[in-house]
Specification:
CATH architecture: Orthogonal Bundle
Number of helices: 10
Low-confidence stretches: none
Shape: flat
CATH topology: MetI-like fold
Strand content: under 5%
Number of domains: 1
Helix content: over 70%
Radius of gyration: 23 Å
CATH superfamily: MetI-like
Number of strands: 0
CATH class: Mainly Alpha
Largest sheet: none
Mean pLDDT: 87
């Protein structure tokens, strides 16, 4: 009989840890690697900032869209479905470029129209930083995917739970907060965690806007020292370290929740 996946010894992790240890040893002992890593420090902070902020905003918007898609009102449901299907059909890099060079100038023009009406100083397009344009684009892109995760999780809760809560006098908000969402969270967590890990990688797309994340700084450093092998080894190692660490933490959290549910 094949053992359960959770009981398999993670040999892949041992091999990966060995490769990672070898690469880190090179980084620490080789001055070229060490110099590249030091220059990428700012990029690490920018990557983490973009990922955390964009994912938090996307989760909030995705939850709202999921609730809208389950609304009793036809117009609300259709509006949510329209947004989700359109955004899911646009490549993230195209959305980044659209938000940065189409939406942002239009937004600035709209703000300036209001400011001109009240006699205030106009806003310059460059005041709308490329960093926040990238964050808004990632928020819009991932909110559509996260909305489907939330919707599936909310629909997995038996309707009898909702009816029982309402029969006890709980309001719709109290039912959602205390009954529906806690049960749906166990279903939502794994795919939501996968989306978070995916956003860490997709945050590298913001480099097309010149945002100084890990990828952008890696390109600049490699163009300056012509040590492409060493530079992109460090870039790949940083992304791999973040994604594998997050995956392992999420797996431990899932196992802990399953044990609590089994008690």
């Amino acid at each position: 009989m094949t053992p359960a996946p959770d009981k398999d010894f993670p040999w892949w992790l041992v091999v990966l840890a060995g490769i990672g240890a070898w690469l880190f040893w090179n980084v620490l002992s080789n001055p070229v690697y060490a110099d590249v890593l030091a220059k990428l420090a700012l990029g690490i902070r920018i990557t983490l900032f973009v990922t955390v902020v964009a994912f938090s905003l996307a989760s909030a918007l995705g939850l709202l869209l999921a609730v809208m898609s389950l609304s009793r009102r036809l117009v609300v449901r259709q509006a949510a479905r329209f947004y989700i299907e359109v955004i899911r059909g646009i490549p993230i890099i195209v959305l980044l470029l659209y938000v940065a060079f189409v939406f942002a100038p239009l937004a600035v023009a709209g703000v300036n129209a209001v400011l001109g009406w009240i006699g205030a100083e106009p806003v310059r397009p460059r005041d709308f930083s490329l960093l926040w344009r990238a964050i808004i684009a990632l928020t819009i892109a991932y909110s559509a995917f996260i909305a489907e995760v939330f919707r599936a999780g909310l629909q997995s809760v038996d309707k009898g739970q909702t009816e029982a809560a309402q029969s006890l006098g709980l309001s719709r908000w109290q039912t959602f907060r205390h009954v529906v969402f806690p049960q749906a969270f166990r279903v939502i967590l794994p795919p939501l965690g996968n989306d978070f890990v995916a956003m860490v990688k997709d945050s590298s797309l913001v480099s097309v806007l010149g945002v100084t994340d890990i990828t952008q700084l890696g390109k600049v450093i490699a163009a300056g020292n012509f040590r492409y092998f060493e530079t992109y080894n460090v870039v790949a190692l940083l992304y791999l370290s973040m994604t594998v660490t997050l995956s392992l933490l999420l797996r431990r959290l899932e196992q802990r929740l399953r044990r609590q549910e089994a008690r």
